[in-house]
Design goal:
about 40% helix
């Protein structure tokens, strides 16, 4: 137990150091962009004359430092690709941490850090980001807890226990609503963009350092990969429906990037993450 606590503390400090370095690099980028613009026009110029400046909070879809299932060779996630899109790529302050749950992202510690960065004027051009990117919910369902939402296959069970699963979705939804409330208080008017993940194949494939996240629970509850794929599809369809409901309320200022049905089988690196091309 003592060794485990020491390792957890080392991991926490490493994450804190990584996030601190990201913030430092971001502020230097903003200072450089401001200096460049001041030589041409005032900072009241329209957004089209400068890069979008975004804040990202999320999980491994925004913070995936592997190449497929390979060694640490640099981030290959959604944010890494956004930073290379177009003639004027966005500048992103990325606070995402791989493995995060929605509940963890909206915990007291992470929420306080998010608010601190939103309120720090040196991070933004006009006091707040142009948009907030949010990736959350997958880890609240997958992993060791996935078995909670499965019926045991006795020949009669349906697979996904929709009653128990709806309770988990309710907690994830609460986290999104909490983020919107933070935005309204600290950065009013800033839109939030989220995504709904794609449909993975629960085949047990995973990196050496973590996982698998789906197949062990399916095996435990006596479901085949084929039926398990249908169960995961149903669960993520329900997740998308919940997010579409949030998008439908204009007060949320929430935009859902519909990522379901995007990836081919060969664009999945493992049970939860795409290949670099997939990202």
């Amino acid at each position: 137990m003592g060794e485990q606590l020491v390792l957890q503390e080392k991991l926490r400090k490493a994450i804190d150091q990584e996030l601190s370095e990201r913030v430092s690099v971001h502020r230097k980028n903003i200072a450089r962009l401001q200096s460049a613009q001041e030589g041409v026009r005032t900072l009241a110029a329209p957004v089209g004359n400068r890069p979008l400046v975004l804040l990202a909070e999320g999980d491994s879809w925004f913070d995936y430092p592997l190449v497929g299932n390979g060694p640490l060779l640099g981030d290959t996630d959604v944010i890494a690709h956004l930073r290379n899109i177009g003639a004027m790529p966005p500048t992103v302050l990325n606070l995402a941490v791989a493995g995060s749950t929605a509940v963890g992202e909206m915990s007291l510690t992470r929420q306080s850090a998010l608010i601190a960065q939103l309120q720090d004027k040196s991070n933004w051009f006009h006091g707040k980001p142009d948009a907030i990117l949010f990736s959350a919910g997958g880890n609240d369902i997958a992993g060791e807890s996935f078995c909670i939402f499965l019926d045991f296959n006795d020949g009669k069970a349906a697979g996904l226990n929709t009653t128990r699963f709806s309770r988990a979705l309710g907690m994830v939804e609460a986290c999104y609503l909490n983020l919107f409330a933070i935005r309204d208080r600290v950065a009013p008017g800033v839109p939030v963009f989220g995504h709904c993940y794609d449909f993975p194949i629960p085949n047990g494939k995973h990196p050496l350092c973590v996982g698998p996240w789906l197949k062990p629970s399916l095996d435990y509850c006596n479901w085949s990969v084929g039926k398990g794929t249908a169960i995961v599809h149903e669960a993520l369809t329900e997740f998308r429906t919940m997010l579409k409901g949030l998008e439908a309320n204009p007060k949320n200022k929430f935009h859902l990037v519909d990522t379901q049905g995007t990836l081919d089988a060969e664009e999945w690196a493992n049970e939860l993450h795409p290949t670099p091309k997939g990202f």
